[in-house]
UniProtKB/TrEMBL annotation, chain A:
Subcellular location: Cell membrane
Topology of this chain in the membrane: Multi-pass membrane protein
Spans through the membrane: 22-39, 45-67, 74-98
Organism whose genome encodes this protein: Micromonospora thermarum
InterPro entries cross-referenced by the UniProt entry: Cation_antiport_E
Name of the protein this chain belongs to: Na+/H+ antiporter subunit E
Family: Belongs to the CPA3 antiporters (TC 2.A.63) subunit E family.
Any Pfam family: MNHE
Key words of the record: Cell membrane, Membrane, Transmembrane, Transmembrane helix
Length: 193, 113
């Protein structure tokens, strides 16, 4: 699935790809300068050369950004992710240190409501950082995440954990998704497998 | 005065980060199978590194170091889940997991109890 095949006008898709490449180019030059520790003409020129080589020899897969960034929901996403990272760390650390505990775990499949590549990737990243969940596998065609749950008991907790994954997805789509993707969130969740 | 407070805060953050990393290490040793261990290797470890970096940033306080620290934090957040997922997937596909610990496995049918 390429960016071009999704858009109706091929030239529009090409413009988007060039925009994506330019963003990546600028980012790589910035990283190069940060790695050297200061901004100078030599670092800037070196960064331009190295970033160009990287982009030519390791071309980007066509994961294009179709949505727009909303500041408020993005702040919610960042803060809640940080908060959950702290909670998750303390919980897993406690499980690790407390004596005589044998965690029960489970593997569940959660279907995403917005099965775009970008959303799958972002959700998988964040889900691995929040409490008790770890993404094992991504079924790209079905838009499904296979999630490993640490320390879960009974079907009620299973359902709660699945809902948590969907909450993460909702936060991400609200922060960076397109208007059409946000509308899809309003639909009732499809019955997960 | 501000420097002393920052140094104190830095010390607290460094110790907290080290403790979390220690807990992550204990978790990797004590959890029963690969998948459980990856939980320990992602969450407390990531936060531990972030706290250590925050402590370092408060102690060093120079712009070039801050840029480097921000990069380390960003790549840590971006790569730790990916690494854990690769290892988890490899473990799952090669069957290196303890099915007796699983309540359910919706990918491959319910676990035999």
């Amino acid at each position: 699935m390429t960016a071009g095949s999704r858009t109706s006008e091929p030239s529009h898709g090409r413009v988007k790809r060039w925009r994506d490449r330019l963003v990546a180019y600028g980012w790589l030059v910035l990283v190069w300068n940060l790695l050297w520790g200061d901004f100078s003409w030599a670092n800037l020129l070196g960064g331009l050369v190295v970033a160009g080589v990287v982009l030519v020899f390791f071309p980007l897969p066509p994961v294009t950004f179709g949505g727009r960034v909303r500041a408020g929901p993005l702040l919610v996403l960042v803060l809640s992710t940080l908060g959950e990272l702290v909670a998750a760390s303390l919980r897993v650390a406690a499980l690790a240190v407390l004596p005589g505990h044998r965690p029960h775990s489970a593997i569940v499949a959660v279907r995403m409501r917005v099965p775009s590549d970008l959303n799958l990737a972002l959700t998988a990243e964040v889900v691995s950082l929040v409490p008790g969940t770890l993404v094992l596998d991504v079924d790209r065609d079905a838009g499904t995440l296979h999630v490993h749950l640490l320390d879960t008991h009974g079907s009620r907790q299973l359902a709660e954990n699945k809902e948590r994954v969907r909450v993460v997805e909702r936060r991400i789509v609200r922060a960076v998704g397109s208007a059409a993707e946000v509308r899809r969130l309003g639909r009732p969740a499809e019955r997960g497998t | 005065m501000v420097g002393t407070v920052a140094d104190l805060l830095a010390a607290v953050l460094l110790v907290a980060g080290a403790l979390l990393s220690l807990a992550a290490g204990i978790g990797v040793l004590r959890f029963p199978d690969v998948l459980d261990r990856m939980h320990a290797a992602t969450k407390p470890q990531t936060l531990g590194v972030l706290l250590l970096l925050a402590g370092l940033a408060l102690r060093l306080r120079s712009p070039s170091d801050l840029g480097m620290i921000a990069l380390v934090a960003l790549f840590q957040l971006a790569t730790a889940p990916v690494a854990a997922q690769m290892i988890g997937r490899a473990a799952y596909r090669t069957g290196r997991l303890d099915r007796a610990l699983l309540e359910t496995d919706e990918v491959d049918g319910p676990a035999p109890h």
